[in-house]
Prior knowledge:
Layout: E1 6-10, H1 15-26, E2 30-35, H2 38-50, E3 54-59, H3 65-78, E4 84-87, H4 108-133, E5 140-144, H5 151-155, H6 168-185, E6 192-196, H7 214-225, E7 236-238, E8 241-242
Parallel strand pairs: 1-2, 1-4, 2-3, 4-5, 5-6, 6-7
Antiparallel strand pairs: 7-8
Helix pairs in contact: 1-7, 3-4, 4-6
Amino acid sequence: MSETKIALVTGANKGIGYEIATGLGALGYRVGVGARDEARRETAVEKLRATGVDAFGVPLDVTGDQSVADAAELIERQAGRLDVLVNNAGISGEMGPGWVQDPTTLDLDVVRRVVETNVIGVIRVTNAMLPLLRRSTSPRIVNVSSSVGSLTRQADPDIEIGPVMAAYSPSKSFLNAVTVQYARQFTGTNILINAACPGLVATDFNGFHGPRTPEQGAATAIRLATLPEGGPTGSFFEDDGVIPW
């Protein structure tokens, strides 16, 4: 089995996910570019390869059981194991005026779609990849979250946390809670799992509004994906350190 470390990044065809793939590739990882759209996925793979990254495409819809199972089989064939899983794929859900999701008028189908992708999708992918991760000598899992999932910050009137987002923000709180449960389950193993906040990054996710670049947004996830043995687990990080739950 090759000594080259293998990573899978979901939602890696653009934005923060693409930059996470770029950063891991620059560190010598062979990177699986997980994405639903074939054309965008293959374009991303070609761009990464042009920069010297050893990249390969992974057809992956995190909301589909068969798609995720097929992705695990593909990585099994391609590499035989997985060293890093970055659960980056996510959606905000439909927004109202002012980029607000008003809880008093929220369409429950929006909540279901957001949770299906941002939480259930992460569980689905993580569990499908676990047999491959367990073959690694230093498996790392990073769940890309958001500081808007911090209940402490959301509840503090003196902290500017952005608009009310009654589907997206709770989905990230849910994801954070799930991350902690995985960390508890992995106690005594060599698997480290953490949540990462990229900050407010200008991507098509938010209409390109934000002071941070995708490269800056990828930095924390890359750091957590490459933690040394004995590194933190079950925690929530941004560039400046730990975020309160």
